[in-house]
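Subject: TolC family protein structure
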Amino acid sequence: MKKIAIPFFFLILSVSISAQTKQWTLNECVEHALINNISVKQSELELEFTEAEKLEALGNFLPSINANMSASKNTGLSLNPTNNQLENTTFGSASGAVNVGYTLFDGLRNVRQLQRAKLSELSAQYRLDKMKDDIALAVANSYLQVLLNKANLKVARSQNIVTLEQFDRTNNLVDAGVLPRGDLLEIKATDANEKQRIAVAENTVRISLISLAQLLLIKDYANFDIADEEYKIIDGGIADKDVAEIIESAKQTRAEVRIAQKEVELAQKDLQIARGAYFPTLSAFFGYNTRYADNDPLQKDFVEQLYLNDGIGYGLQLNVPIFNGFSVKGNVMRNKINLKNTEYQLEQAELDLESNVYQAYVDANGALKAYEAATVALESQELAYQYAKDRYDVGLTNAFDFSQSKLRFDNARIEENRTKFEYIFKLKVLELYFGVAPSELKF
């Protein structure tokens, strides 16, 4: 039994450890969000809803078929359905009918309804595409924020290691009488401040991980983590393109404009459907009916009566609208106003998109300049820190000046991290506007 239990225990333990140590990549996070996000699921349901709308529109081209039957018991003076005579007796009767109707012309409203259903399906697909773009971008932003916070935590920890090493050297210099004991106290204060900053940085990482997990609808916050990958700045040439070219591409590919365009087309179809009510409606009909009564004097059986008492009717029906209390005219007016409103919305969507692209373009260029400036500043602060360290090691500067130099170096590294990830995100936003699919973004 022990031979079986021990391997089983280690198997369960290894599975548990594997589950706890899973680190999510950015692509895995995006794919998980696109499958599980509630807003995406709602957009998918909206797309399925348009399938029902299209099915109903197709049904308008098919004939309607209805059947009915009834059975009754009559006592006293009643009409015999087989001979249309009033009889003062008790008898049972039954009747049945099948009716077929078909619309030949209804002002082309059935055609317009089908066209509208297809447009509605395209509009729902564009809304789903936009929702996926928004979710993918939100996940990428949240993911990069976690990476930034982790990078800052690494800076804090690595610099604290330097402080602890410096404490040992300072202690030796104090013992040798090269430095005053006050410098040792200054290093201790620096160590305490850095440990506090590490604790804050750890909390910041944990909070950003929880935010990302919530976005992905992952409940196991304690074991959720992402892969510590080194994301580089990958520019596919978008930064060198003219802003007018990016705007034109955005108008052709972005879902915001496509959705607004489909709303205009839907409003046009609604107006055509409303105007169709001005036209006459022509329909064809066919009906078959039969009846039975159990007081037949000739004692014919059930099947024979149904055969002898049946009948058919068929013909055409024309319905010409003459006056309907202005309901059709009012409906047409409302749809005209709605069409004009959607045209304004399309114009506004194009203006908003142009403004957003300009803003993204300016943000990306500004983020690049900020990153380049932060890189230069980091190089300068690193040289200054190394110079201060060398001077401190030989007792030419005090601990306070050295700690200030190290603090400026730490802040420069944090700022370089921040501007780097901000530029990566701004660059990817610009690529999305240019028409690059979220799944094709390179990090």
